[in-house]
TrEMBL record:
Belongs to the PITHD1 family. This is PITH domain-containing protein. Pfam families: PITH. PANTHER family: AD039 HT014 THIOREDOXIN FAMILY TRP26, PITH DOMAIN-CONTAINING PROTEIN 1. Residues 1-165 form the PITH domain. GO terms for cellular component: cytoplasm.
Amino acid sequence: DDLLAHIDTRGVEVLNATDDGAWTKILAAGERDQDTLELVTDDDETCILSVPFTTNVKPTHVVIVGGGTNDPDVSACAVVKVFVNKPSLGFEECAKKTPAQTLDASEGARDGGVFELDKTAFDNVRTLTFYFESNVGDTERTSVRRLEIRGRTMDAADVNQLKKC
């Protein structure tokens, strides 16, 4: 199931985008379905997108689709690092810390951008932080057209089971 309804939209943050509200273009229903809307990085190819949830969730898949732009200085995202429950990471921390999972968006393009997430690393999630580290064209800026987070909410039984471990 799409976890869009469980995203705390007031807490979503994006760093190094040409537009601070650009995250709605890739996350929000309706907008993310339009091929002409995208998030484009500002100063270089990197970008951080922090997505908090209103409840604990168990993401199982993410869909990441790189943008398609006519600008020769902009290309689709390639390497995306995903961090769990680390809402305030900066660029230096993202570059140095070990993520819960690293995705190769250029490889995922063959599967429609759908990535299966590690079941053990993505349990009891309150925030996902996406670090768009590089792009496929080694260009100055990166473009992302769609980001969809799929999974389910964690109910009381799930949370109690986690506490017993």
